[in-house]
Amino acid sequence: MNRHGNGLIAPTLTALTVLVSLSSVTGNYCEVNLCHNGATCVTGVGEEPFICICPDGFGGDTCNLTDTGPCSPNPCKNDGTCELLTPTRRGDVFNEYICRCQPGFEGVHCQINVNDCDNEPCANGGKCRDLDGDYTCQCPSPYVGKQCQLRCISLLGMEGGAIVESQISASSVHYGILGLQRWGPELARLNNQGIVNAWTSASHDRNPWIEINMQKKMRLTGIITQGASRMGASEYIKAFKVASSFDGVTYTTHRADGQRRDKVFVGNTDNDSTKTNMFDPPIVAQFIRIIPVVCRRACTLRMELVGCELNVYSNTAGCSEPLGMKSRLISDGQLSASSTFRTWGIDTFTWHPQFARLDKQGKTNAWSPANNNRSEWIQVDLEKTKRLTGIITQGAKDFGVVQFVSVFKVMYSNNGESWSTVKDGNTGNDKLFQGNTDNNTHKKNLFEPPFYAQFVRVVPLEWHERITLRMELLGCDD
Ligand SMILES: *[C@@H]1O[C@H](CO)[C@@H](O)[C@H](O)[C@H]1NC(C)=O
Ligand SMILES: *[C@@H]1O[C@H](CO)[C@@H](O)[C@H](O)[C@H]1NC(C)=O
Ligand SMILES: *[C@@H]1O[C@H](CO)[C@@H](O)[C@H](O)[C@H]1NC(C)=O
Ligand SMILES: *[C@@H]1O[C@H](CO)[C@@H](O)[C@H](O)[C@H]1NC(C)=O
Q1: Position 297 pLDDT exceeds 90
Q2: Closest among 391, 327, 331, 320 to 146, alpha carbons compared
Q3: Pocket test for ligand 2, best of 234, 271, 275, 302 (most atoms within 8 A of CB)
Q4: Same domain, yes or no, for 324 and 467?
């Protein structure tokens, strides 16, 4: 049933134009534009010498006819659909038509983008941003969740011991008193007591660090630091940076939201008092590294990490929010694809990856690639690691032709370079997701188990007519 052909549109032009045959004329018809009203003239499509592609509001073979009716051209803004009213339903309303608005829009012509922040959905000082039919809260640490309603403030176990010795490592160790005192990383526990009670880097170490391996991905919202005293003198870290990693190989240095420079945290000022710093935004990682920048006498540290398990959030709130294809939280710049198709090679009818938004309306309202084969993909850069739990896909129509992707794979990556494919939990093979069967129905697939990634790719494997996709990703901010 599914075809892999290039699905050229020739037999199905009727919805747009009527083919014009001028058999007595030869040559390139479009040298003289026989189309009216600013229409585009195209040669070399199918068997007909030329066709006219009419602008909105015009029809007929040569676009010389004005489409009649109040819905043509569509008076509704923001992807609203225009519905003609029967005479009996008229009267109380202003016109012969009514606009059915997409979620998040209202007004007679859907011209008003409803401010979804109006009823202040964000708790605990979260900053609300209005989206199309949705909102997003930017939560100050340690608050998380769709509405910043959850607090992520567990002490993760440096002081309590839940983090064991083998999870703590460092670039170097200071040995005091003829090498008898070992100021090892495993001692870097908040409020640790004794004569030797903290980590100190070796004095020759020019790039010291201490690292905690959390053994799984965790959400970290803050750090508590403390110095120590050695031989009656205070030693502590006055300023430090924080780096994190998923794999212990590539590290990212923490930056505050919207900043281009590494965040330098202000640390301690004496041997004993504690200093708390929050990570804003929170860090999601398995490995966390504290990098001293300025040390008093020596880089000496006792510490605690503050955060929470990632699945706390999904257990309480359900991790299946739309991540923003439809609402445009995912911006155009975050979408890319292997290639794009242009109907009849015309720029106006380009099927950009930026159109692959669930429920998008319009003449070209989905992504479609230049070729119909299994090398094509569409990619979303979520800009930070998120927990992905599902995907909704949808087909579309190209001038009346129903097109959709019926089987696809999903790939993901943390850096946009090395990719993993979502596997079938039972067989261990690449998971083949069942896609669409028509031009409009939402088909939802869940990722079981969920995965974490910044980049997600959808790779079509089977399709009807032409690869054509609108979609939404489901997950949460973990
Ligand atoms: C539009 O063009 C066709 C021929 O291409 C012609 O037969 C018809 O009369 C024209 N209609 C108007 C309204 O000009
Ligand atoms: C270290 O801290 C304790 C408690 O605040 C204080 O009594 C002591 O004098 C400090 N030692 C040094 C060397 O500063
Ligand atoms: C898909 O088509 C493109 C362009 O024709 C070609 O370069 C590529 O090798 C094809 N891939 C497959 C898997 O056939
Ligand atoms: C395409 O989707 C629309 C909207 O749901 C539906 O009304 C129409 O019947 C579908 N067209 C085809 C050919 O399936």
Answers
A1: yes
A2: 320
A3: 271
A4: yes
* Residue 310, phi then psi, degrees to nearest 5: -70, -40
What CATH number does the domain containing 191 carry?
2.60.120.260
Domain range for 93 is 81-113
Tokens of 88: 């009996």
* pLDDT at residue 87 in the model: 66
Q: How many domains does the chain divide into?
A: 4
Across 93-107, 385-399, 400-414, least confident range: 93-107
Q: Which ligand is nearest to the CA of 370?
A: 3
Residues lining ligand 4, Cβ inside 6 A = 402, 438-440
For 238, residues 6+ apart whose C-beta sits below 8 A from its C-beta are: 266, 267, 268, 269, 293, 294, 295, 296
Q: What is the pLDDT of residue 343?
A: 84
pLDDT, one tens digit per residue, over 328-371 is 999 999 999 999 999 877 788 899 999 999 999 888 899 999 99
- Work out which ligand 3 atom sits closest to the CA atom of 373: 1
Residues 305 and 421 in one domain: no
- 339 C-alpha vs ligand 3 centroid, how far in Å? 11
Query: Which residue's C-alpha comes closest to atom 3 of ligand 3?
Result: 371
Q: Assess whether 277 and 345 both reside in one domain.
A: no
129: in domain:
no
Ligand 2: does its nearest atom lie under 6 Å from the Cβ of 193? Answer: no
